[in-house]
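W.,

You were right to be curious about this one. When I first looked at the sequence I had no strong expectations either way, so I just let the prediction run and decided to look at it fresh. Below is the sequence, 305 residues in total, followed by the output.
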Amino acid sequence: MEFNIKRLTDEEAAENVFFKAVLDEEAPMYDAAIVSKDGILEWKNENCNSINNSHSATKFFIAAAVGRLRDEGKLDLDAPVTSFFPPELLPSDMEPRWHHVTVRNTLRHMTGMGDDSIRYGVDEDDSNTMIGDDFLSEVFRTPLPHAPETYRRYSDAAYYLLSRIIAAVSGRTADKYLNESFFKPLGFGQWTMVCCPQGHPIGGGGLFARARDIAKMGYLYAIGGVWDGKRLISEQWIGESKGNDFALGRFRDFDVWVKTGARGQMIAFSQTKKTAVAWHGCAFPDDNGKRNDRLLEAFVAYCKF
């Protein structure tokens, strides 16, 4: 699918209701893009890198890979997460409750982890020096004080586990599977993913890419999962993701579905308007949620809901 790509100058951006909101932000914005049937509009801070960290918006992509494997009949969402790994990969001191945690629980951050459980943020801090080389064993050693599906504890560790399940099912690391299943068909430019010491994407964050490419993934969901006449993801999965908190939440009562990142990142789309948006930035810690609201309000205005 070929897109007309329009790179906006600051002056042109100031004439657009969404991009004007981007320019008006006090904390730095790196890049932003809108994708629709009319093409791609993008703005980039010329002082920033070509690609930027999507942080937790990465989880949207990991969830999509899980969905495609489910669509292919290769992955059962109700299978226990431990069933994907041979015994030698499970630590001898494993928390036994992990045998009762399913892929579905993990997608929803409902594994049973407590508030003091490991998070993983090796794309932004030195968690790898605290965890060591074997992230998978560390996940399975994590105590589960709650029964699965009874307590929500948001954790990057859950999506690292999904990254490893993608590899176990597909025979390729999650980044390679994503590249073949989505990034190549969507025409991604430069991108990379932060990996653990054993070479597996950390899953909960660490996808570096351009906003215009991140937004293409949202556009794929907005148009029902078919790209250039080829189905990349099922409409059923898109609907389930929206209804079950599979790395997607709704913005107020609009048909706008979002996945945020901790440092000022976003991917969002509307099926009603068949339009998607993405941005990277650096939010002040106490303003990330407010800024997301401001920019999503501007996106809603752009879409003319």
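Here's what jumped out at me. The domain at 5-50+210-303 is CATH 3.40.710.10 (Beta-lactamase). And, maybe more interesting for your project: The chain is about 35% helix and 15% strand.

Coffee later to discuss?

I.
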